[in-house]
Amino acid sequence: MEYTHVMNTFEPVYDQYSEVLVLGSIPSVKSREQKFYYGHPQNRFWKVIAAICHETVPVTIDEKKNLLLRNHIAVWDVIAECDIIGASDSSIKNVAANDINRILSCTQIKRIYANGEKAYKLFIKYCRKEGQPDIIRLPSTSPANAAFNLEKLCDSWGEIVKYDDIDGAV
Fold this sequence. Notes:
Elements: E1 4-7, E2 20-24, H1 29-34, H2 45-52, H3 61-70, E3 73-77, E4 79-84, E5 93-97, H4 101-104, E6 111-115, H5 117-126, E7 135-138, H6 150-157
Parallel strand pairs: 2-3, 2-6, 6-7
Antiparallel strand pairs: 1-4, 4-5
């Protein structure tokens, strides 16, 4: 397969009340086709977020945005554009990063989480700046992460709603 130059055309999802930022690497081919984050039908992101927030799994883009905002969760990707083979994060090269401070400067973000190892490493390499909240690596919700079933993912991801500073969560 050959490299394709991909531009991330999705706007981040956040508002001034967002307290947690979840970062992916770059939208997959399926997500780009659906024009929204975590669009691959086998990706467990929306099931995990719904489960840890005790809500129903959203279907439409508006339902997904509303679920995130109701629970003070912002979502974006580390990469603005790059070269990639298919959906293979391991093939990513020629990275131009998003300006994460765009969100941090106008929200109440207290914690940043990476959806998987690649997003974590890319953030550290291209986006990490002094004064930002620490980034915590969570297991990827990608179907390629077969080591984690839905229950194990929910256990790991549950930490994003286990803090007193998130409205309604304990």
